[in-house]
Amino acid sequence: MAASHLSHQPYQSHYQHQSYLQDLDLPTPWLTITGLRKASGSRSHQITVLDGVDLAVYEHEVLTLLGPAGAGKSALLEVLAGGDKPDGGHIHLAGQEVPKGSRAIGLAGTGFAPRQSVRDVLAAAARIRGAGRREIEDEVGSVLKGIGHRGDPQARAAEIPAEQQLFVAIGRELLAGAQVILLDDPLAGIDHARRDHVQDEIRAIRQEFALSLVVATRNAQQALSLSDRIAVLLNGKIAQTGTPLEIYERPASAQVAATIGTVNLLEPAVSVQLLNQTATFSVRPEKIRVVGDDYPAEADEVLATGTVLRVVYLGATSRITVRLDAEGAQIQVLRLNSAAPEDLPVGAGQRVTVVWPRRHAMRFE
């Protein structure tokens, strides 16, 4: 369904079908958040929830807010959707301040009235936007097709599978006039075996309706696989924004590195022995290999000796924990179980050598 079939209010949409921004040659931001602040608690004991959040969301992209519990992700979505009032800052959509009561930014929640059918959910949203009876029928049919709903539209929305509830919730916000749709931990109620499929469907819906999506999650793997860009939110502040590759391979801090995936932190006392530099470094477990004593190291590789503490079999991979001789630091190695021939078979208590390319040691001041 073409996005122009829906009469978006209060902003008139000018979307056209196109693929998402693979090269991220980004135009002017579609949604701009500037200096957003929010505190909770009593006057005498306030807790900062959002601490001057600055963020840009571009047309047709999936931007994921990634952070631990309590980072401010849900609070930010509530403010953006108009469900909570910020203490300061500005929210602009298409260059205009978003007015109170606007439906242009919608939070897709899956709460449905017990007896409300799928069709009724969507039709009610279109009525909110002011659509007429014939227009409602056409739009509901188009949205049902666009979200891939193959079930009975008269089925109770609260009783259909969780993934279909999610898609209906997105359709509801779309029909109500949303041009940016917010998803708070959308895969939380989805079976693990279905999550990859649901992520594919979310991206397909985004492309079908030329939407911008802002997703909040604490799951780094979901953020990496779903997003065009990721904004890491820590303690109410945006710590770093970039593509999944940029955030994972070039994190701005040790905290960002740990948020996007498992890291081995090498404190200065360890780094000075292994890297001849007094600073904190991190190395991803998958960048490290366990090799034999006769391994022919290259000039750009770092070697360290230690003792295997444990080996955990994970199916396609194994996680090997090694206590280094350098300061007794512990590191983890993630090894494919179809390892290269020169990779050493290991067991607990074994003396080993670990190696990684020097370029994969990320330095943090």
From TrEMBL:
One GO term of the cellular component aspect?
A: ATP-binding cassette (ABC) transporter complex
Q: Which SMART domains match?
A: AAA
Which stretches make up the ABC transporter domain?
A: 31-260
Quote the InterPro entries the UniProt record gives.
AAA+_ATPase, ABC_SmlMolc_Importer, ABC_transporter-like_ATP-bd, Mo/tungstate-bd_C_term_dom, P-loop_NTPase, Transp-assoc_OB_typ2
Question: Which GO molecular function annotations are given, in alphabetical order?
Answer: ATP binding; ATP hydrolysis activity; transmembrane transporter activity
Keywords for this protein: ATP-binding, Nucleotide-binding, Transport
Record's Pfam families? Answer: ABC_tran (PF00005), TOBE_2 (PF08402)
SUPFAM superfamilies referenced in this protein's UniProt entry, alphabetically: MOP-like, P-loop containing nucleoside triphosphate hydrolases
The protein's matches in PANTHER family, at most eight in alphabetical order, are given as: SPERMIDINE/PUTRESCINE IMPORT ATP-BINDING PROTEIN POTA, SPERMIDINE_PUTRESCINE IMPORT ATP-BINDING PROTEIN POTA
Can you say what this protein is called? ABC transporter ATP-binding protein
Which organism does this sequence originate in?
A: Kineosporia babensis
User: What lineage does UniProt assign to this protein's organism?
Assistant: Bacteria, Bacillati, Actinomycetota, Actinomycetes, Kineosporiales
